[in-house]
Specification:
The protein is mainly beta and about 120 residues long. It has strands at about 1-5, 10, 15-25, 30-40, 45-50, 55-60, 65-70, 75-80, 90-100, 115, 120-124.
Amino acid sequence: VQLQASGGGLVQAGDSLRLSCVASGGALSTLNMGWFRQAPGKDREFVAVAGWSADKIYYRDSVQGRFTISRDNAKNTVYLQMNSLKPEDTAVYYCAAAILDSPILWMSKLYEYWGQGTQVTVSS
């Protein structure tokens, strides 16, 4: 499975961005899809996950209510709609795919496939 993330950019605080991640070489409908981010000098952290089953959507607390993850299995694409962006959201954002189902999909080590990352910069 290959993942291609896009949609990052430079925005001001309060603006919105939508990230996209297109999967190829595999059916998105069978994969748990997550978004992670890594800011300079910090560890990679979980942002959101949309499991292959519709009842598994989770967010990290700091983005809850501002970010929305969604998936279009017909287009093999997962999205991350980011609203009310803050400077602390600045990071490289990665999409990732996990084959196995798990109650701890917030852990990056469960993901076998990773996209190349897209930079999101939020100025104050």
